[in-house]
Every structure is written in structure tokens, then in C-alpha cells.
Amino acid sequence: MNSPVSSIVFKVSRREPQLIAPSKPTPHELKPLSDIDDQEGLRFHVPVIQIYRRDSSMQGKDPVKVIREALGKALVFYYPLAGRLREGPNRKLSVECTGEGVLFIEADADFDLAHSGNVLQPPFHFLNEFLFDVPGSDEVINCPLLLIQVTRLKCGAFVFALKFNHTMSDGAGIVQFMAAIGELSRGESSPSILPVWKRQLLSARNPPNTTCIHREYDDFTTTIPFPLDDLVHQAFFFGPNEKAALRSYAPPHLGHCTTMEIVTACLWKCRTIALQPNPLLEMRMLFPNNLRKKFSPELIPKGYYGNGFMVSAAVSTAEELVKNSIGYALELIRKAKAEMTREYVQSTADTLVIKGRPGFPAEGSFMISDVRHLGWRYVDFGWGKAFYGGPAKDMFLFGSFFIPFENDKGEDGFVVPVCLPAPAMERFVKELQILLHSDLPINSSLQILKKKKTW
Questions:
Q1: Cβ-proximal residues to 136 (8 Å cutoff; 6+ apart), any chain
Q2: What's the pTM?
Q3: Which helix (H) or strand (E) is 327 found in, with range?
Q4: CA distance 264 to 287
Q5: Which residues, other chains included, contact 275 with Cβ-Cβ below 8 Å and sequence gap of 6+?
Q6: Residues 254, 277: contact at Cβ < 8 Å?
Q7: CB of 31 within 8 A of CB of 94?
Q8: Cis amide linkage into residue 227, ω under 30° from 0
Q9: CA-based nearest residue to 265, from 171, 396, 366, 361
Q10: Is the Cα dihedral 106, 109, 115, 121 positive or negative?
């Protein structure tokens, strides 16, 4: 396959996809997912990409062979991931632990990491080459739950790419699984953190009972609110200077706000201005809250690899969001985060069951998931930490990630991939430039990708 972007052309050769099963016999059983896992808004696959440089100490070792063997061993511990999802009454999902295995692809690319420029970073123009879209692999029911492709590069580096079914795991859970593969790759006999199922901890009561207000699951249409024939994918880097510039918009009484909170508030306002919605339309800023370390005593145990997060929603009309200061958006975000109590968690599970496992409202919604601290880059298969590690792209039209990243100047920060229609993206960039106090084009080193296709 020849793949041109700018002046770069390279060829990828792949072997046929194969199923990797657990290396030892595992139980055959039916395990229900939690009522957080099987909501409509998580019934999709998430692509992840890890890029590893050449390591002279691993000379003679084949990353494909090492990872494939360790994957089979890891699936002994994480055997539900080798099964298939089944849907029962009321759309309830369970995994049948069949031991059939996960999809694995071995590949080689005529590609040199040293000469790649800024190609191997969001929005990853070459994602399809490093993570082949096996026909049918995007299905949720009755198909493999993971697809992994390991691609050797001619310079001795390699790319590990993975696509996982979000109903089975969240980002923290899949990093835990990948870390287990890494430990077994490096010769350990078992993972240092053993997997825990216990999905009943995040399931509805009997009978379910909504006790909190859940604006994240309002009964709104899921129709996409704008045309899809001229979409732009662009990534924005936030380093020390950018974070300091945006933090200056926090009012004095909120000066202790987190980086996530202030940057999210700024992006929410910029995106709202860019989309030019009806002034009376309610805009929702959705953001997941990791429950793993939020409560004392803990709500879910160490080793839990299901979806251990709850989504909060900050809500405002477009008019109020646009005319007010950044501090207004920041206040709404902090208020929504503060509502995340144990009872809110239980009420969420109950509400999902009562409403028939709904998705998130589409029009006016924007979701940001902060994955900076999940440890993607520290997954080590024997070649050290990843040069880049994390989600491969934005969440299509309605969301994005904060992904740890080091720019070409060596500055540590994070990158935020965003997808918008072309005219809206121009307005978004302009508004963000204003907030950053800059007359220069921002993120000139990051790629822009226009996609004209039917999704």
C-alpha cells in the first residue's frame, strides 16, 4: 500500500489477521457487564497508537514475536477479552468467555521514524496503515473485542496499534491490560496488578431509582447537527506558555482550578462561538470523572478494568456561554464536578437502566476526556517507554482527549485533537488565537487533515 501525505510515500505489507487465544485453557462462562459499561454512548471501538524507537539493547529481538507470545499469556489472566459480547433482554450486554481470541496483525513498513517529521502524531494521517480496518471488526456484538497490529519500521522502531471495544474497558483499564502484556514481554510470570471483574459494583439497584439530575442523558436527538462533507481534523498543542496564557482567564477566587478545568472552559467557549448555534440552544460540556481514586474508602478496587468513570455535564445556553467571561464556563464545570458523589454514581447506573441505556445527546454536546495521567507512554514491551502513546484521534464530532505530548522543541504538554466543519474550524482557531494572546498561526507544526467522506 502506497500512502502519500505531502512528500512522504511508504509501503506497508501485512500478513493475514489471525486470532490469538489464551495460551492456557480458561473458563467458559457468561459474565454480565455493568450498567455503566453497556450504555449506548460506549458501544464503539477506540483506536490507540504506541510508537517505540529502536533500542540497541534489544538487537535481534522481534517485537512482533515478543508481543504476540505475551498477548496469549496476558489473555489467560484477562480471558473475558478473548470472548464475544452477547445482547440479552432490555439490551443488556454480557461477555461469553469463549476463548476464541483477539485479532492480531503482523506488518512491516518501509518507513523511517527519523525522517517522519510530524506525521506520527495526531491526527495520524496513516492510522489505517498502522491499524488495518479488518472487515467487521468495528461491530460491537459477536465479534473480537480487540484488534492489535504490530508494525516493524525499517529503522528498527515499531508501532503498536490497538482498537478496543469501549464497553469492555475504559482508558485506564486498557492501559492496565497493555502494561500486563509489557510485563509478560519482559519475562515476568504474571502481571503486577491482577485483573478484577466485579462489574456488579457499578450496576443498578433493584428496583432502579433516579435520585439525582442527569443532564448528560437528557432526552435529546442524537442527529448530527451539521454536514459531514467538509470536516477538518486538527490537533492543538498546549505547553507551558499556552497553559499559562489560558490560566490568566481564571478569576481570582478560582485561581486554584486545575489545568483540565481552565483549558476545557476555554475550548468550550471557543467551540460554541465557532459553531454559531441558535443562541437559546443548550450547550453541554461533558467530561468523564475517574472513580478509581475519587472516594475513600474506594468504590472500585485496584485491578478493575471495566469502565470506572462517570460523566458530568455542565450546561449553558449558547448565548450565556458566548457573552460571559471564561470564569462563567469555569464555574459551571467545577460545579458539575462537585456533584460527583457516591449517590450520583448509583443514580447514574439506575438512570441508564430506566431510560433503556441511552446515548449522550448530540446537538450542542462536547466531551473532553483527560487521559494525560493514565500511563500510556510508560507501557514497556522491552524497548522502553513509548515516543508517543495514547488515543489515535478525536472522538469524531463530539469530543476529544487531552493526550500527553512532547513537541519538537522538547516542551512537555498535551495535544488536543479536534474535529469540526471547515468554516467552524477557521473560527475556532481564530478564537483560540485571541485567548492565547498570539498574532501568529498556532500549532503550525501540527498537521491538518480534511476528510470528505460519508461516515
A1: 143
A2: 0.92
A3: helix 326-338
A4: 9
A5: 226, 420, 424
A6: no
A7: yes
A8: no
A9: 366
A10: negative
Marked catalytic residue, from 35, 45, 125, 166? 166
CA distances (Å), origin 144, targets 135, 140, 300, 301, 427: 11, 8, 26, 26, 41
Q: How far apart are CA 211 and CA 200, in angstroms?
A: 19
Strand partners, 48: 162, 391
Cβ atoms < 10 Å from Cβ of 127? 18
Whether cis (ω within 30° of 0) applies to the bond prior to 301 is no
pLDDT at 155 over 70: yes
Cα 107 to Cα 165: distance, rounded to the nearest angstrom: 22
Local structure of residue 215 (DSSP, 8 states): G
Residue 45 contacts residue 137 (beta carbons within 8 Å): yes
387 with 52: CB under 8 angstroms? yes
Question: Which phi and psi angles does 216 have, rounded to 5°?
Answer: -70, -15
What secondary structure letter does DSSP report for 63?
A: H
Is pLDDT at 238 greater than 50 in this prediction?
yes
Q: Could you tell me which residues come within 8 angstroms of residue 269 by beta carbon, excluding any fewer than 6 positions away?
A: 321, 322, 326, 329, 431
Query: DSSP characters for 260-316?
Result: HHHHHHHHHHHHHHHH---TTSEEEEEEEEE-TTTSSS-SS-TTB-S--EEEEEEEE
pLDDT tens for 242-265 read 999 999 999 999 989 999 999 999
pLDDT at 306: 98
**380 counts as catalytic:** yes
Options 55, 112, 230, 380, the catalytic residue: 380
- Partner residues linked to 369 by β-bridges: 401
- How many percent of the chain have pLDDT more than 90? 79
| 166 is known as an active-site residue | yes
Pairing label, strands 399-406, 45-52: unpaired
The answer to whether the peptide bond before residue 80 is cis (omega within 30 degrees of 0) is no
Cell output for 233? 481534523
